[in-house]
Design brief:
This protein has 123 residues and is an alpha+beta fold. It contains 4 helices and 5 strands. The longest helix has 10 residues. The protein has one domain.
């Protein structure tokens, strides 16, 4: 699913994670998941970190990521903490191991292309 999103310098937040996987940044997946859940606006990651985390996962049972512009990052903390993602640039979610959902800010110039590429995945 990450393949449909363009390379970016956004501030990514891991809000939920469940599933088996290898170590990421010297921590077990359970530790990463706990960190994400215990931080009100999620665990901050770079786009590269998101890819590296994804590569360590054997299976993503549940995962929720959102991305905001880095210069607006702290402004979005309270919105993210309360589950409001409408100002985020992206939202990527896996739930129950097989359902994928992606959200793209409609103001983005590449909105249509990203949505089309996601639909082409056939999931």
């Amino acid at each position: 699913m990450l393949n449909v999103l363009p390379d970016n310098d956004l501030d990514w937040r891991l809000l939920e994670l469940e599933g088996p996987g290898g170590p990421f940044q010297g921590k077990y997946i359970d530790e990463i998941a706990d960190s994400a859940l215990n931080l009100p606006s999620g665990l901050r990651l770079s786009w590269r970190d998101v890819w590296e985390l994804s590569a360590t996962m054997v299976q993503a049972v549940d995962m929720l990521l959102v991305a905001v512009e880095p210069h607006d990052s702290s402004r979005h903390d309270s919105e993210i903490a309360s589950g409001r993602y409408d100002e985020c640039q992206f939202m990527a979610e896996v739930f129950d191991s097989g359902f994928l959902r992606i959200g793209v800010n409609q103001r983005r110039d590449d909105y249509s292309k990203i949505v089309e590429n996601f639909l082409d995945l056939g999931v």
